[in-house]
Amino acid sequence: MGDGGSVSDPWNFAQNKKTLLGKILCIDVNTMPSGNTTAGWVNYAIPKDNPVSTDPSFAP
């Protein structure tokens, strides 16, 4: 995903944990999520080896 700005990310979105701008989204489209989901119809899962999936500071 782009950082939403001009060259060199002048607003440091890539370093800001609270925005999706400037990030690489890691999803597994071959695995259906298990258990309760709040997103409704979901055809993907977040991989278990995603290093930030359990870090609450990365939550939106």
Automatic annotation (TrEMBL):
Protein name, UniProt field: Uncharacterized protein
InterPro entries on file: 6-blade_b-propeller_TolB-like (IPR011042)
